[in-house]
Design goal:
mainly alpha, Rhopdopsin 7-helix transmembrane proteins, 2 domains, three-stranded mixed β-sheet, two-stranded antiparallel ribbon, elongated, receptor, G-protein coupled receptor
Length: 329
């Protein structure tokens, strides 16, 4: 009941309840508010339960991302099988077989970690998904950086009077991967100890839905994990860019330069899109960024090599490698 101004108390208008409130009878003195987990129906005469909203496997968006994850994972396994089959050939040996295995394994884990983001988030998934994503991606980028540094050091070691000849090889690559990954793991451990992520229910962002999402605990730590990964990616891109013209038939620096350019572009685009999204769409943006950046590394670095291994075996021999180097010199 809304009292009419300037008239008797018994005179009133009948008005609709404001948004978020209901009335179960006509001429009520005031409207009732629905509980947090319910919302008013269109007639505003009863409360309906809110539906849980999260990125599920059943909805089209979740199904598409799941299908992409499985496709890219299977592709990575096929590439790994191809490289294992041709592991004794000159091209595979020239591109550091051990780092190649580490990079392919980490890329496979990058694709599989997308499953932490799909489905209803719980305590364990919220705790693990950003940690696993941060560490596994850091290992991938560190492997790319190690590959590039190995190319440069191996080329410099062929020059007379070069004093770092003894550092060329597996020790240098292993050190780069180990140190880079340990720093990221240390950041994640601090994050887990100080303010770990946890699941939360957002009752107020949408009228008819409850957003089930992970609270990152500390936004600073989340962006620190992303920032460190971005720093490694920028370093990898810079080093590969300056090494792209080194004389080597199977010089990976050109491929790495393009792959890291794509990688950085994806994650630069990720931040504004992520910050402007809510609920399951925010999660979908992160999953898509994971798949796009990992797929970029896989495609740019390994698909040209698979083409040579499978379709152009005539280029996969020592004569081609030595001949190309001599032409450059």
């Amino acid at each position: 009941m809304s009292v009419q101004l300037g008239k008797q108390v018994c005179c009133y208008d009948c008005v609709a309840c404001p948004n978020g409130r209901i009335s179960i009878q006509m001429d009520a003195r005031e409207c009732q508010e629905c509980p947090e987990d319910q919302y008013p129906n269109n007639n505003q005469d009863r409360c309906l339960p809110k539906a849980l909203s999260y990125l599920s496997y059943e909805e089209p968006l979740g199904s598409v991302l799941t299908g992409l994850t499985l496709l890219l994972s299977i592709t990575t396994v096929v590439v790994m099988g191809t490289f294992i089959q041709y592991c004794h050939t000159p091209m595979v040996k020239a591109n550091n077989w051990s780092i190649t295995c580490a990079l392919l394994s980490s890329l496979l884990l990058c694709f599989l970690c997308s499953f932490f983001f799909i489905g209803q988030p719980g305590t364990l998934t919220c705790l693990l998904r950003q940690m696993v994503f941060g560490i596994v991606f850091c290992v991938s980028v560190a492997c790319v950086l190690a590959k590039t540094i190995t190319v440069i050091v191996a080329f410099m070691a062929t020059k007379p009077g070069f004093g770092m000849r003894r550092w060329a090889g597996k020790q240098l690559a292993g050190s780069v991967i180990m140190v880079s990954s340990l720093i990221q793991a240390g950041i994640c451990v601090v994050w887990m100890i100080t303010s770990p992520p946890f699941p939360e229910f957002d009752m107020h962002s949408e009228t008819d839905k409850i957003l089930v999402q992970c609270n990152e605990g500390s936004d600073l730590m989340f962006y620190l994990v992303l920032g460190y990964m971005g720093l490694l990616a920028i370093i990898s891109f810079t080093v590969a860019f300056f090494a792209r013209k080194l004389p080597d038939t199977f010089n990976e620096a050109k491929l790495i330069t393009f792959s890291m350019l794509m990688f950085c572009s994806v994650w630069v685009s990720f931040l504004p899109t992520y910050l402007s999204s809510k609920g399951k769409y925010m999660v979908a943006v992160e999953v898509f960024s994971i798949l796009a950046s990992s797929g970029g590394l896989l495609g740019c670095i390994f698909l040209p090599k698979c083409y040579v291994l499978i379709l152009r075996p005539d280029l996969n021999n020592k004569k081609q490698i030595v001949g190309k180097k001599l032409r450059y010199r």
